[in-house]
């Protein structure tokens, strides 16, 4: 079966290494996986006063999440947590109360940093947020990517075979995880 996956890139930077990583993941995803970006750059700051009249960009985000089978977070670590822009997007999508877009939506997290910790601490924060948002999360395999110049091309090509194999396996595992979650939590059971 074809699974649709929406992916968040947690960085707004033009030359984001996490955006480059996302391109590699799109390339290495199983051929029957449809990958669409869930853009976060045009969202205003979340304000619950707007819960009754969602801004267009925020409603579009909720609609886009509803249309996919799973969500993938490709994010940097900022100050040992997640970037504010990503948290803002999660806050929008988790509301209005009772219409949390992440409920029962399978998710996986991955991220790249220049340092050896490879976003591990930031991802722990993200996993905690997603737990509260009731998203079934792929616990294994974990993916903490140390971004080494020369390994990733701007087009998402990966020159190191071990890294490429790992990322391909990661996407394969996420595809299997989504299939398992959909079996026990069919989307229309609410
Ligand atoms: C960082 N960086 C960083 N790196 C890290 O490994 N742990 C951290 O806690 C932080 N904190 C942090 C805060 C802020 C505000 C910035 C701008 C940067 C460095 C970060 O990993 C590096 O800039 C990456 O290139 C960011 O990812 P993108 O934007 O290139 O995808």
UniProtKB/TrEMBL annotation:
Q: Which Gene3D superfamilies match?
A: 3.40.50.360
Q: What GO annotations for molecular function exist for this entry?
A: FMN binding; oxidoreductase activity
Q: Name one GO cellular component term.
A: cytosol
* Domain NADPH-dependent FMN reductase-like, first and last residues per copy: 4-146
- Tell me which domain of life the UniProt entry assigns to the organism this sequence originates from: Bacteria
User: What InterPro entries does the annotation carry?
Assistant: Flavoprotein-like_sf (IPR029039), FMN_Rdtase-like_dom (IPR005025), NAD(P)H-dep_reductase (IPR050712)
| Name the record gives this protein | Chromate reductase
Organism (species): Pedococcus cremeus
């Amino acid at each position: 079966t074809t699974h649709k996956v929406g992916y968040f890139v947690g960085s707004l930077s033009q030359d984001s290494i996490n955006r480059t990583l996302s391109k590699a993941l799109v390339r290495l995803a199983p051929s029957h996986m449809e990958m669409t970006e869930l853009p976060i750059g045009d969202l205003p700051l979340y304000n619950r006063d707007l819960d009754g009249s969602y801004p267009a960009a925020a409603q579009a985000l909720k609609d886009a999440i509803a249309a996919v089978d799973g969500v993938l977070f490709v994010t940097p670590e900022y100050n040992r947590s997640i970037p504010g822009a990503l948290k803002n997007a999660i806050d929008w999508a988790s509301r209005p109360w009772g219409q949390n877009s992440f409920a029962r939506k399978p998710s996986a997290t991955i991220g790249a940093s220049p340092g050896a910790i490879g976003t591990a601490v930031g991802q722990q924060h993200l996993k905690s947020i997603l737990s509260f948002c009731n998203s079934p999360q792929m616990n294994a395999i974990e993916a903490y990517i140390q971004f080494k110049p020369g390994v990733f091309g701007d087009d998402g090509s990966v020159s190191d075979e071990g890294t490429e194999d790992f990322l391909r396996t990661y996407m394969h595992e996420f595809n299997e995880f989504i299939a398992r979650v959909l079996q026990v939590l069919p989307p229309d059971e609410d």
